[in-house]
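Hi P.,

Sorry for the delay on this. The queue was packed all week, but I finally got your sequence through. Input first:
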Amino acid sequence: MDESLKHHNPNPILTANPLSKLLFWWMNPIFRKGYTRRLEVDDMFNVTNEDSSEDLGKKLEREWNIELAKSKKLDKSPSLSKCIVRIFGVQYALLGIIVFIEEATKVVQPLLLGQLIRYFTPNSTISQMDAYLYAMGMSLAAIVLAVSHHPYFFTVQRIGMQIRVACCSLLYRKALRLSNRAMGQTTTGQIVNLMSNDVNRFDTAVMFIHYIWIGPLQALFVLVILWMELGPSAIAGFAVLLCLVPVQSLMGKLFAKLRHKTAVHTDERVKVMNEIISGMRVIKMYCWEKPFGELVAKIRKCELTYIRQSKYISGFHASVWTVGPRLMYMAVVIPSVLSGVTLRPERLYVSLALLFALTHTILGCLFLAISRASETVTTLNRLKKFLQLDELDQGSIEEASGLRPKPENCFIEVDKITARWDTDSEQPTLSNISAKVGPRKLLAVIGPVGAGKSSLLMSILRELPVSEGSVQVRGKISYVSQQPWVFSASLRQNIVFGNKFDNARYIKIIKACALDKDIEVMPNGDSTLIGDRGVSLSGGQRARVSLARALYMDADVYLLDDPLSAVDAVVSRHLFQKVIKGMLKYKPRILVTHQLHFLKEADEIIILKEGQCLGKGTFDDISTSGIDFSSLLKSNEEEEKEKPPVVKYERATSVDRTHSSLQNIGSTMSLTSIGTEFEPDPVKQPEEEERREGRVGWWVYFRYFQAGSGPIKFPLLVLVNLVAQAAYIMSDWWLARWSNNEERREDLIQKDSVLRSQGINNTNITIPDSDTDFNVYIFSGIIFSVFLFGLLRALMYFKVAVDAAMILHNRMFKRLLRAPIRFFDINPVGRVLNRFSKDTGHMDDNLPITFFDYIQCVLLLLGIVIVVVAIIPYVFIILVPIAVLLYVTRRYHITTSRHIKRLEGTTRSPVFSHLSASLQGLHTIRALRVQEKFCEEFDNHQNLHTESWFLFLSSSRWLAVRLDWMCAIFVTAVSFACVFLAQELDAGLVGLLMTYAMTLMGLFQWAVRQSAEVESQMISVERVLEYSKLDTEAELESDKPPPPSWPQNGKIVAKNAKLRYGPDSPWVFHGLNFVIKGKEKIGLVGRTGAGKSSLISLMFRMAEIDGSVIIDDVDTQKIGLHELRNKISIIPQDPVLFTGTLRKNLDPFEESTDEQLWKALEEVQLKPAVEDLPGKLDSEVSEGGTNFSVGQRQLICLARAILRQNHILMIDEATANVDPRTDSLIQKTIREKFKHCTVITIAHRLNTIMDSDKVMVLDEGQIMEYNHPHVLLQNTDGYLYKMVQQTGKGESQKLLEIAKSTYDSIPAEDRPSLTEETKTVTADDIYLCEENSDVNSISANHVLQNRSREEEVDSSDENVPSPSEGPVRSVEDKEDVEDDEDVNEDDNEDVNESETSSLLAAKKQQNMDPLPSLSSHADDNSVSHSKENGPLVNSSIHNQHVTENSRPSEDSNEVSETTELLNDEKNDE
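Then the structure:
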């Protein structure tokens, strides 16, 4: 779907010749490019077919399916390893030949060394020419090692990469097929961890597997040679080796066990971090930083316990690996010497070189092979466990066959189905439900929260397994989820969804979904990138994008799960008419809704409650059936006949104003539309992840070691490392000295023996004592010190490294918890989570071992160079140019390597972001049958990461080949220099020199590569340190906290309050001034972007604030954030639940008793549902709370607020996803429980705020109106008035009655004053006819103004009739009109031309004059509504009322945009 992931840059390895492949010349162009400029994604080479994610994934999936089939037949567990072997086994086995050649060369080289050393012994029979030939043989052996080593490791690492890619592709495909039950058994965090950490074991395991058979074979050859050289004492050396092998194996197994335990805790930590990052806004508002910080600290502590143990094992292994060869030397040398064998240099160094090669193979590669194989087995078991999870069975849906039936043959039929989410539960989710929807039919599904509405759609989609009954669907299904799902891509990609782009169809859908205006103001139009989870869009925009996607799929059957709840009334009506009743009118449709005013347009209605069908039929059937649920379904006419009860007034406590009629209002209105109904919302561009340039600074290393050590520990660590290395060098030097002395003594003995045989008794030859015992003791002591200091430095270093990882993670996490909420709004979850998964994983696992290895290599290199130069100073001549060449090559390499490594980091994040987004939208993806397209997208992301990883492997080997060639030159130079300077050297020093030169061969390139790897790994530390310096909010606690009883009244005063979300961001509020009296109930309304939610941020200090907000005489700017936020309860718009028990979600601090928890659940109508759960309060909440419905999650959030018992409550559209009846019960609960509290409600349904003490209307960060709702409704040009007229005739009448009733109940002396006699407005005035509901804002104004003029002319004092006495249309009349409207709409989907013309004329007239109500109507002898005599006066604050006259420049925008929509639609026709 994302074409930006594809670029054309063919991989040069496909056309490279064998020599180029051998020396990696084909990489030269990328290095030239990387040295001159920063590498970009387009510079990376395309993946080859053998590395392609799609091909590899399909191969492994095919083999896995075959394995599953076999295992079922044989009734045994399937083996993922067998599948991998069948695909990659042959190629991998052939590579063993190269390893065999390399290791054979390592055996031959010491034999050549022995012959070369013999040249330097006294009385040698080796000629100078033979010596040069042996030196040449040593050089050729070095070249063979350089040529064979790196192509082998590059190829096996490439195979490891292919296995990893294949497994990730298989895992992703499996994730898309997981059943809902299986999703409850795993988490997003666990799947991310499988793909980010576990599968990485394949990259390293494949490098050493061959050593499992090569090691023993090499050991056999070496044993034979040593037996020939040393005799039976060779057995002693092998005995030591045989003792070390099981020790290493035991450590490998123990390491794997610890790794498994670590992985479990890492999974848990990543999962919790994912939830924390996603729900940070709620965590900050509830002041839950501390309990979540403790939770993460607890998990991290357990994780670090196992990490520390595994690192200590690694340290012990490192010390054994260092001292192992020395122990074998000791075991070989000491028995030989004590048995009388002369310790000759040629014999000694051949043995030592062979033992060193064998030790490297057995203790190094073989140990790694065993440990990595053990880890890989653990990984394979974890992968297999995931791959064996239950899958969704969607095969029975006819559409899956690809055949599209004719439109008239499409239908949905549900026949007596019973279904359960939890198969162990006795209570079914759905019980005996039947329904059938044919072409042109609309089925509406209604019911209270948790009734099973969404579950019914899930059963049709096969997401919910049906235990009884049957579900039949004929035709392609399209689905709109209750929670709109968008993914990180452009707006067009979210709508087109990978289908072929049809511009005409696309534009039509954009207009039908009212997205055209939004697209116009987006920075890049419909190419604008939408952030992770759609963070750039408002809730309404996400809903419309989700609906547009479903339309573009061009399906035969549509399942709509409450798509209208997130949009305002005008948009809702527009979508219903243009989409559900317009573009989809010929299709079978099932609409789950809480917006009951659309029910009478449905062909059939199903009422669900507790999974059972309470009623089914047409609107008239349900209305007259007398079902218990009928209170939800009363028609508007019945509502109008009910008079609101007389309400007793209690000052500032409107919670007592109980309107039983509230239950009857089904108006769902998001109130995002004021004036210009379809005014688009601003779209934020997601910020790209920062990519640092240049090398990792020394300050990063300093901070790393500073975190793990201190002013005493670090110098001590340096000292121990130097002493350990000195002991290592000393052991070799002592052996050289010992062997030289022994050889000199043996030579003198031979000379003396010759002279005596010639009869010369006085030879004057002094034969020194052998000092065998002294040498043995000294050598043994040195070996012991090598082990002691080696172990000490390893344990000290790993303690420092683990402590550094712990402290840096804690600092990062602590800083993250204190970061402003703006940080989480602009950074995708995947990006932040990457710091806590991949980067922290590098600090925990890879960096300590890599850094320790690098330190050892550097110290050993320094020791070797010092020894070589000390013995042959002339070598310095060749060493200087090699060192310069090394520096230049490394610098040339590291510049490109940094770019490649950072590209690898930035191309890795989208893989996990795509995975996370796919799991969030799993139901939508499966319903729309786009799994293959998402797999293709995932493969594209993986291929992009593979391109960067391929470059990383290639660049590493490019450097290593060149370094080994330098080493080969060095070995050649030393070999020939030794022969050339034969007269100045003795055999012992030559042996030491050549042994070190041979050691340098692999060590040199390894040290340089490790330095680059350390720098690459330090990028993770650098990234963690970046987050350790994030900006923070204000202090949580202040020096002078408010008294514990604060606030007692809840009075809120804003004085010139400003708010913005960043230092460079514009001010959202430009200076708010308002007063909310204690215990007042305030309704907050305004269009999207008006600043409603920002007012919550202002109250909670979630962003940068200027001015002051004073609560009960305490300036909130001067107290701590927790001291403020703990005193304000919030019911957020998006209900957030966290993994854990329900009890923990309600009361994380454990401050409430069980009785209080049950009481709170009872008050929010959740007690029965919780009692049915197996664990009651201790029942587990799944990730994201998915085992509760959206409505139930909101009720749990309400229960939280009840438990907090604060004097200030803020409600942010908290009842958007609950049915009206539950909504009314919630409102009743709020009125009762928060009777003595100040309540600020951001309205989603007008009835929730119409009985408020005051309503505050916001627009563009300013307060436009603020007074009692009845007072505001007298201004026919007012904002609130326009909202009410959009709700429909019956609802608007009821809203007017509620406002007037609450106003009349206020004692006369306390009522807000009116500037003129109140004129009663009836529903007929603001809603003349439902057929032309889109144009009433203009028509109603004419009627009201004419009526006002007539009343003024008559100057009568007659009483105004009550609203209920206004003209009421009968049900029959209304239905007749609707039938006519349906006919007209079916014909041409247009409106009456005369009406449209009059509307356009009215709009034109208003646009000509910015003050139509003042000027144009005055010309028509209409009453003018001026600022002086307007019906609205603000009684609470000074200069807060803004009338139309005060904003002449924007008045033209106040005209209803519906006119423009109608005009556009007519032009389209």
